[in-house]
Amino acid sequence: DDDATGALVGAPKGNITIGYGFTLSAGIDLGTAMALLIFQLTQLDAKLQPYIWYTQANEARQSVFLDIAFNQGVAGLLHYPLMLHFATQNDWGQAAMQCTVKDSEPDGVKQRYAALAQILRSG
Question: In terms of pTM, does the model score above 0.90?
Answer without folding.
Answer: no
